[in-house]
Amino acid sequence: MADLEINPKNKKQRTQLDDTAPSGLPVDENHFLSGNPAHWSVEEVCQFISSLQGCEDLASQFLSQEIDGQALMLLKEEHLMSTMNIKLGPALKICASINSLKD
């Protein structure tokens, strides 16, 4: 179950998973999961993709392609565009977000 909280200082919304959530990973102010992204499940990857602006509708493709954290770290623009038929703009956003996870 997820609780939605408002941070009064910056008024950004933050979602936190309660202790009974299967993943057990909290989501920070930017909606990114914590922990090592290479160990994310397919569902956690879908949550990450859903959190990216303009990419909310693409999570189902990551689910159907069974992309877990390890596969996510290996993705390139070419994979997203040719195999998953994702347009260039969202593909670039996804890859930029993946690269920021690697840093």
TrEMBL record:
SUPFAM superfamilies: SAM/Pointed domain. Residues 1-28 are annotated as: Disordered. SMART domains: SAM (SM00454). The lineage of its organism: Eukaryota, Metazoa, Chordata, Craniata, Vertebrata. This is SAM domain-containing protein. Residues 40-103 form the SAM domain. Pfam families: SAM_1. InterPro entries: PcG_chromatin_remod_factors (IPR050548), SAM (IPR001660), SAM/pointed_sf (IPR013761).
